[in-house]
Design a protein that fits this description.
Blueprint (H helix, E strand, L loop, with lengths): L26 H14 L7 E7 L5 E7 L2 E3 L2 E7 L3 H8 L2 E8 L4 E11 L2 H10 L2 H9 L9 H14 L11 E15 L7 E7 L5 E6 L2
Antiparallel strand pairs: 1-2, 1-5, 3-4, 4-7, 5-6, 6-7, 7-8, 8-9
Helix pairs in contact: 4-5
């Protein structure tokens, strides 16, 4: 099979520009605005974000998770605490996330530290999940090696029987994280690869300073 010319694949970005004066003073408001616009155009998985972590060994790993809330202090997502990413965040709480919305020719990068949400908040979100997802959180030893997919199916059936006829409680190894950002970066594609990049960094005594970055 012939290999496609990957080096020749490129897309010219032609949507409107992004002037600094049109950006919100607070990056959280700007993130909410762009997220709302991605939802409005029915972008596939608009709340999907690539989460990058690194454990004590310094080796980076990335995977896609779903943003589940924008709280006062930052970005909320949920996962298995005993998964590979959960273990890495326990060893090193510094992470970054990336949103990519190609239909809007936009990216957002956010970096900061994570902290676990309270059990009460994790309980409330877990209770809102579909029952199959609740059962899956009990059945899957996330990131661990299993001998065959059928093992997972059997575990699911066992958990399904265990909780038959009653609510599924949140597993103690599953819950939420809050990413508290210390920087945000907004990227808008432009013709000629002169993309526009704006980074928000903390500015004393309170607030944010906007920096223009070369693409």
């Amino acid at each position: 099979m012939a290999t496609k010319d990957l080096a020749g694949l490129r897309k010219e970005f032609t949507r409107g520009g992004l002037a600094p004066e049109n950006l919100a003073a607070d990056p959280r408001q700007q993130l909410q605005l762009w997220l709302d616009e991605a939802i409005a155009v029915e972008h596939p998985e608009p709340n999907a974000m690539t989460l990058a972590t690194a454990g004590a060994d310094g080796h980076p790993h990335a995977r896609v998770v779903l943003l589940k809330g924008l709280e006062e202090g930052g970005l909320v997502f949920y996962t298995n605490y005993q998964s590979a990413k959960g273990q890495e965040m326990a060893e090193n709480p510094w992470v970054s996330v990336l949103f990519f919305w190609p239909l809007l020719e936009r990216q957002i990068r956010v970096g900061g530290k994570v902290q676990q949400l309270s059990p009460e908040l994790s309980d409330a979100y877990f209770a809102s999940r579909p029952r199959a997802s609740q059962l899956g959180a009990w059945a899957s030893p996330q990131s661990e090696e299993v001998s065959a997919y059928e093992v997972l199916e059997q575990r699911f059936r066992e958990v399904e029987e265990r909780f038959k006829g009653r609510p599924v409680p949140r597993p103690p190894h599953w819950g939420g994280y809050l990413l508290v950002p210390d920087w945000y970066e907004f990227w808008q594609g432009r013709p000629g690869r002169l993309h526009q990049r704006y980074r928000y960094v903390p500015s004393a005594p309170s607030g944010w300073r906007l920096a223009v970055l070369a693409p």
